[in-house]
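Handout for the seminar on molecular recognition.
Each group receives one record of this type.
Step one: identify the two inputs.
Step two: read the structure output and locate the region that could contact magnesium ion.
Step three: write two sentences on what you found, then compare them with the reference statements printed after the record.
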Amino acid sequence: MQSGRPTSAILLVGGFGTRLQPLTFSTPKPMLPVAGIPFTEHQIAKARAAGITEIVLATSYLAEVFAPHFGDGERFGIKISYAVEKSALGTGGAIANAAGLLRGTGPIVIFNGDVLSSHELQAQMDLHRSGGADVTLHLTSVPDARAFGVVEMDGSRILSFNEKMENPPTKIINAGCYIFNRSVIDSIPRDRAVSVEREVFPALLAGGSKILGYLDSSYWLDIGTPAALLQATSDLISGRAQSIAFTELLHQDLYTRISGSLVALDAQIEPSAIIQDGSLIASKVRIENGATIVGSVIGQSARIGPGARLIHTFVAPHCEIPGGFIAENQFFGYLEEK
Ligand code: GDD
Ligand code: MG
């Protein structure tokens, strides 16, 4: 507290994860495993390391999945509570709804629940304070900004914010981690769906609020598509991306590294099988002779038959892939609908 940095946070985990179906029919996007652990654990560990002591998970779609896993947060060294939206309130509505559960009175850190980022959260906090901002956004540059919130800037001050536009004026985007002063949260309309990107940011800018941008070039990825989800696992395994939760997992000695992939120690891998390109082989998996696994995630107790070849593919826990089967960019064993 001496630094005056925020100690309270909200994690937005209520989206439908539409682009990740069928993986998200039964598991909300933030609970999908990335490098062997539910994605939300990566973000909770990041928040804790930056001095956050309490976090509210803003849940809606499949809300019931989170509490049994995270409980009151004791196991994760942080106080966790749950705001449940009966119907999705949008990102702004979710923030307003969740803020009521926080005890702290200072600025609040808000995370999109699907961003793997190595940015220095404490440096963003320091800019928020030293710059006397109402809101401070983490920003990053991408080659194609059309699928994101795009900003125009003057120094570190944000002049405009446009969510998902066809001809973006810059390549600098909203990276999905904000610091909000309480007064900003109090200004969000209650009890209806509100988008922070389409409504709150433009309204704040029009009203003269001071919105700053913390722009950096550290590792950043939105895990919202199947390709990105596999990329995140592979980048963590290779060390291109960093995560405290992943480092802690490695210290548990449950996995070994095989040609740039991570393989559970209790998985049975026949010697002639090939595993490569940042694959994740979970506990009790069996991979038969001559099978090849490239950049794929194989769920717990699944069995991959002899000679099968799986490329950038997801295999659900307990699923059996027949011998000789060849697949690329596929999903096996996931529910077809809710
Ligand atoms: N609780 C709650 N309620 N959470 C929600 C809701 C809701 O109604 N709608 C979305 N979320 C959560 C999602 O679960 C996700 O973690 C986060 O809010 C952002 O939603 P996405 O659906 O992933 O949005 P996006 O990726 O298209 O765009 C957002 O992220 C980009 C960076 O990855 C925007 O914030 C963009 O401006 C940004 O550039
Ligand atoms: Mg997203």
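Reference statements: The pocket of magnesium ion (ligand 2) is lined by residues 112, 114, 222, 224 (CB under 6 Å). The two ends are 44 Å apart (CA to CA).
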